[in-house]
């Protein structure tokens, strides 16, 4: 039986449609936009300009060098037919019209318990010479956004091992704090102390844009073999290109997120947030973004909250990321735009003062200028009363310090100030803490209680500042669970 020409045509059409469908599927599986190789046109500073190249922003390219090798670069912007790239490594050996080959890949992050004990660079490659990473899993650099309504609240205090912070500036699990100070006032040392003393399942440390020497110091001395067992260090020191420094900050945050998503309690420490902002400024300015606030382009102030918001508590069933970011306050100017922006987006700040450090008191925490915004929700009224009283005495003395030190203040003229003066040596003693001394949360509170419950010698009677904090009214829920004994009072 012969088929009619119509039926044959129909069969052909069906076969053709079937083949076309298969081709479409294959096309869909690959990049919808084919990647096209381009050539190098211009290199100014650290910015590489290529033409004829088709690669999306955030993807990676390889640029051929004069000796036939390649350098890795990431697409950071474009204008007309040109794309702008920035190197993630050393920028040397480039020649005009060199090949620029898109790899089609974006940054991936190796994650897993195999990271514990390791030191990585900003791209996630090991720096410690301890062989390849045994992680197995890779995730994208851009984490999952948490619905703000689903985030667990900060409702549990965290013992950070520092007397002043535990008692006067209590930090909650999942809180994001800033450590603000000028250079050389003790940010890194305090961060190191908290690294060793804080209770956490995993510690992720991002050393961003600081001295290369400090990386080894941090790994060997601050963390040591014991601390490294539960830590991951991401190091992108000052000599790394700006893109690498930025990646270091994102990478450490992404690793912390991974452990949090597994339900662990993570401590994320970043030294420093200012260097992250400066790296973003370098990248943004070099691709033509105009400077806005004191030389910083607007994207810096958009990236800071993006980075910081990724820390904090997870949603139900997840763990937490408690984060500490150091912020360099240049020229001790607390109104520096980066410091200002960081102060606004973080959940509290510990300010270190040069004047206090110069007097030899470490950690040089300026209690007056520091605040923990989650404190009222995680402490009971008894502690809040003690803190209020401590702050009153502290401020009163500090406001009159100049008068007192030149001998212009005479005892008896203000009973409240007399009391502050009498308490001052013990206040200083309370604030002082050696680098290797750990003070537990309960210990910190009972020392604070002991300090304020004991009358200071030399105080006149009618001082007006209550000596004994009122007995704690019945605290509710969470807060009532924590009881502590005072050296002097109960
Ligand atoms: N708790 C402490 N006890 C004794 N000395 C301290 C303490 N904290 C800091 N110091 C002293 O202060 C110096 C500077 O501290 P650190 O390196 O932490 O400052 P920094 O603020 O990180 O400086 P930079 O901004 O330059 O990185 C230390 O070398 C040390 O001598
Ligand atoms: Mg430092």
TrEMBL record:
- State the UniProt keywords alphabetically: ATP synthesis, ATP-binding, Bacterial flagellum biogenesis, Bacterial flagellum protein export, Cell projection, Cilium, Cytoplasm, Flagellum, Hydrogen ion transport, Ion transport, Nucleotide-binding, Protein transport, Translocase, Transport
Protein name, per record: Flagellum-specific ATP synthase
The record, for SMART domains, names:
AAA (SM00382)
SUPFAM superfamilies in UniProt: P-loop containing nucleoside triphosphate hydrolases (SSF52540)
Looking at the keywords, is Disulfide bond present?
no
* Family label: Belongs to the ATPase alpha/beta chains family.
Q: Where in the cell is it found?
A: Cytoplasm
Enzyme class of the recorded protein, top EC level: translocase
* Annotated EC: 7.1.2.2
Q: Which InterPro entries match?
A: AAA+_ATPase, ATPase_a/bsu_AS, ATPase_alpha/beta_chains, ATPase_F1/V1/A1_a/bsu_nucl-bd, ATPase_T3SS_FliI/YscN, FliI_clade1, P-loop_NTPase, T3SS_ATPase_C
Q: Which reaction does it catalyse?
A: ATP + H2O + cellular proteinSide 1 = ADP + phosphate + cellular proteinSide 2
Annotated region Disordered: where?
455-490
What would be one Pfam family of this protein?
A: ATP-synt_ab
Q: Which residues form the AAA+ ATPase domain?
A: 173-357
């Amino acid at each position: 039986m012969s088929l009619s020409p119509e039926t044959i045509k129909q069969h052909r059409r069906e076969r053709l449609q079937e083949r076309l469908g298969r081709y479409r599927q294959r096309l869909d599986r690959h990049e919808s936009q084919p990647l096209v190789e381009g050539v190098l046109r211009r290199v100014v500073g650290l910015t590489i300009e290529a033409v004829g190249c088709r690669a999306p922003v955030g993807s990676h390219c390889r640029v051929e060098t004069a000796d036939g090798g390649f350098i890795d670069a990431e697409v950071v912007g474009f204008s007309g037919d040109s794309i702008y790239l920035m190197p993630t490594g050393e920028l040397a050996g480039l020649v005009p019209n060199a090949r620029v080959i898109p790899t089609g890949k974006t940054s991936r992050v190796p994650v897993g318990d195999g990271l514990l004990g390791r030191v990585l660079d900003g791209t996630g490659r090991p720096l410690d010479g301890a062989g390849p990473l045994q992680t197995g899993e890779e995730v994208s650099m851009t984490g999952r956004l948490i619905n703000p309504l689903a985030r667990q609240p900060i409702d549990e205090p965290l013992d950070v091992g520092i007397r002043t912070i535990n008692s006067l500036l209590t930090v909650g699990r999942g809180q994001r704090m800033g450590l603000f100070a000028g250079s050389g006032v003790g940010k890194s040392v305090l961060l190191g102390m908290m690294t060793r003393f804080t209770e956490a399942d995993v510690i992720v440390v991002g050393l961003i844009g600081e001295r290369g020497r400090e990386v080894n110091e941090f790994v060997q001395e601050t963390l040591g073999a014991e601390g490294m067992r539960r830590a991951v260090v991401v190091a992108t020191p000052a000599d790394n290109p700006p893109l690498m420094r930025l990646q270091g900050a994102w990478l450490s945050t992404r690793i912390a997120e991974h452990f949090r998503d597994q339900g662990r309690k993570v401590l994320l420490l970043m030294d420093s947030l200012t260097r992250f902002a400066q790296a973003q400024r370098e990248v943004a300015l070099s691709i033509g973004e105009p400077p806005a606030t004191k030389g910083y382009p607007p994207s810096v102030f958009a990236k800071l909250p993006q980075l910081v918001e990724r820390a904090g508590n997870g949603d139900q069933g997840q763990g937490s990321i408690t984060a500490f970011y150091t912020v360099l306050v240049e020229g001790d100017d607390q109104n520096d735009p980066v410091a200002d922006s960081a102060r606004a987006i973080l959940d509290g700040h510990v300010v270190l003062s040069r004047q206090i450090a110069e007097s030899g008191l470490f950690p040089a925490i300026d209690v007056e200028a520091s605040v923990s915004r989650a404190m009222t929700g995680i402490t009971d009224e008894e502690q809040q009363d003690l803190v209020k009283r401590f702050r009153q005495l502290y401020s009163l003395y500090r406001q009159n310090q100049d008068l007192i030190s030149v001998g212009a203040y005479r005892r008896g003229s203000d009973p409240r100030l007399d009391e502050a003066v009498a308490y001052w040596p013990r206040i200083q003693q309370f604030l002082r803490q050696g680098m290797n001394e750990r003070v537990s949360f309960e210990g910190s509170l009972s020392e604070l209680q002991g300090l304020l419950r004991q009358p200071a010698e030399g105080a006149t009677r009618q001082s007006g500042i209550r000596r004994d904090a009122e007995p704690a009214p019945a605290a509710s829920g969470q807060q009532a669970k924590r009881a502590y004994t005072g050296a002097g009072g109960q």
